[in-house]
Amino acid sequence: MRRFLIFLFLVAGAPAAADDRTNGLTQFSGALERLAGTVGPAVVQVQVSAWCASAVANGEDAASLKSCRVVGSGVIVDASGYLEG
Question: What is the pTM of this model?
Fold first, then answer.
């Protein structure tokens, strides 16, 4: 009988623990959403186009130029528009 009461106590307490975890995750998720909404406007995408040396083909010594594009991201650090990537 005592084992049954211990089991019943543990089973009755399990949903409360699960609810606490779910509530904690919900609060954490909400905090992340608010943070993303706050810093989101400062996130930028940076695209750079330039001429790059192409790989030497067929054992030739002379390299040719080709158009290159590099993409990255960064954040606006201050009101003057300084970016940190």
Answer: 0.43
Dihedral-angle region of residue 42 (phi above 0 means left; psi in -120 to 50 means alpha; beta otherwise)? alpha
DSSP bridge partners of 8 = none
Helices H, strands E: what count in the chain?
A: 1, 3
Diameter over CA atoms, the chain: 89
Q: Which residues are CB-contacts of 73 (< 8 A; sequence separation ≥ 6)?
A: 43, 44, 45, 46, 85
Domain ranges, ordered by start, for the chain:
2-84
pLDDT tens track for 4-58: 545 545 555 555 556 777 788 999 999 999 998 888 888 899 899 998 887 665 6
